[in-house]
Amino acid sequence: MNPCPCGLKADYDDCCGRWHAGAPAASAEALMRSRYSAYVRGLEDYLLATWHADTRPERVEIEAGLKWLGLEVRRVLEVGEYATVEFVARSKLAGRAMRLHETSRFVREHGRWFYVDGELR
């Protein structure tokens, strides 16, 4: 088994791998988990493709040497075409542990979820 980095007890191909391969994420939480997995796997093109056009940067650079250690989804609120996902992602860089606590906003357009932006906690 090839465990998915997103923290769900599933094989990568059956979990975030299908979203990375082009299938639309089934929910805002699934998209958020797949974006975390994309950071772990260095999939910069996927991160850009799933970022809403109104807020998307020109490019995404994943910091060399950054090791992602785990993801905890704390709260999901999905109302129609809009959603928020609060999460904590742990990482380590050059021996220093870090924690990213964010509430991310998502929107669904034409059947696909997109990351809009996030508020750090």
From TrEMBL:
InterPro entries for the chain: NTF2-like_dom_sf, YchJ-like_M
Organism of derivation: Rubrivivax gelatinosus (Rhodocyclus gelatinosus)
Domain YchJ-like middle NTF2-like residues, every copy: 27-118
Official protein name in the record: YchJ-like middle NTF2-like domain-containing protein
SUPFAM superfamilies: NTF2-like
